[in-house]
Write a structure and sequence with these properties.
Immunoglobulin-like; mainly beta; globular; 2 domains; 8% helix; three-stranded antiparallel beta sheet; 2 helices; four-stranded antiparallel beta sheet; Rubrerythrin, domain 2; 144 residues
């Protein structure tokens, strides 16, 4: 599958570049095809999966929205807690359902490399992508 990365904000698109980036709203010409971003990260840091691969827990019953159907997607970056320091941190976590971008959690040092997406029901495949400022892009895919 073709992978396109926004040169401005780092957003990842699967299949083809969008007309406009859904995160920073720059036009299509700001996307660059980079089909190997995930394998490159693994090559740079073969043991890095323990600190980088998103750990995903899906909770089908969300209590936040009492009158709406909601599925929670809890994400923790790595089985081993990832550091969140100026020199080494997770910049963002993105959520995709059936390879369509849903939302982003932006992170900074001072918070944990974790978050929750409250999603509407539907879809078959969940993909979570995170970006580490030192070790690049990492992802986890699972049935939704």
């Amino acid at each position: 599958m073709s992978i396109f990365v926004c040169k401005v904000c780092g957003h990842v698109e699967f299949g083809s570049a969008p007309d406009t980036c859904p995160v920073c709203h720059v036009p299509k010409e700001n996307f660059q095809q980079k089909d190997n971003i995930f394998s490159e990260a693994l090559e740079k840091s073969p043991e890095g999966g323990a600190k980088h691969a998103p750990v995903v827990t899906i909770k089908k019953e969300c209590k936040l929205l009492e009158d709406e159907a909601c599925t929670d997607v809890h994400v923790k970056v790595g089985k081993i807690t990832h550091p969140m320091e100026d020199a080494h941190s997770i910049v963002f976590i993105d959520c995709y359902i059936d390879d369509k971008y849903v939302a982003r959690i932006s992170l900074r040092p001072g918070v944990y490399a974790a978050g929750c997406f409250h999603t509407k029901p539907g879809g078959k495949k969940l993909r979570v992508v995170e970006f580490c400022n030192l070790h690049g892009y990492w992802q986890t895919e699972t049935d939704f």
